[in-house]
Amino acid sequence: MPEIVYREAIxxxxxxxxxxxxxxxxxxxxxxxxxxxxxxxxxFLKKFGPERIKDTPIxxxxxxxxxIGAAAGGLRPIIELMSISFSLVAFDQIVNMAANLRxxxxxxxxxxxxxxxxxxxxxxxxxxxxxxxxxxxAEVPGMKVVCPSNSYDALGLIRxxxxxxxxxxxxxxxxxxxxxxxxxxxxYEIELGKARIARAGSxxxxxxxxxxxKLVEAAADGLSLxxxxxEVIDLRSLNPLDMDAVVASVQKTHRIVVVDSARRTGGxxxxxxxxxxxxxxxxxxxxxxRVGSVDVPWPYSHGLEQKVLTDADDVLxxxxxxxxx
Length: 325
Prior knowledge:
alpha/beta, Rossmann fold, 2 domains, seven-stranded mixed beta sheet, five-stranded mixed beta sheet, 20% strand
């Protein structure tokens, strides 16, 4: 299969939607003339024009509200935030309006919109630009949340997200934009809420999503060198969450390590750990082990940031501590 980088996979999905559905348009900061903070929308303004590609002021609350209104009125907006950290300014619109309008209107109003944002630390953007708020948003009923870890999933999930009649938050790990992955030329979609078994194994289950998949894959490689077979699960979707896939894996391996590249406290893996404990405790040969980044503001210094950001060695340490492997 041909290989394309992560940003190009998302770009392909956006371009397809703009070409095939006149209801689709995009709004966001620097998505037009500049081509997007991470070059995802490069060339879109020239190709689709200012009616479909709308540059906005630095006014997240305003253009998020405009997007919600457009979606309620029958259009299918795609809203790009320059950073997921900036979603804080628009949280009232996202959480109170977008996520609740369908429920509060008794199904009379739908909000078919996609909110895209780069997420995560590791690119030296400092404490105010390095958050991973997809873990917060996954708690909100009515808001679907996905975070693909590779080019194949990025394209399949963005296609599905744009067609969904509910608001979908599409978190894109900033560290993955330039990473290549295989993507077939044939059309495909990926169902929201279905995890991926990235690697089959029999001795321990490693679970993560987004950038964290690089860490668990590397840890699985390290474990294989000492004869330990790791099953690796990519959640892909944080809401809905595919706990059936995780529980089924635990019933096979009897051991589990859950990995958040975001901060350990309050991450989605706390929810996964609690569900495993409730639904599969009798299958476990030891504790549910959690791994995450250090609970401090993200440093700007590259060396300090890397020290705070969790890595494959932390995963291996958790495997050894919890299960002696």
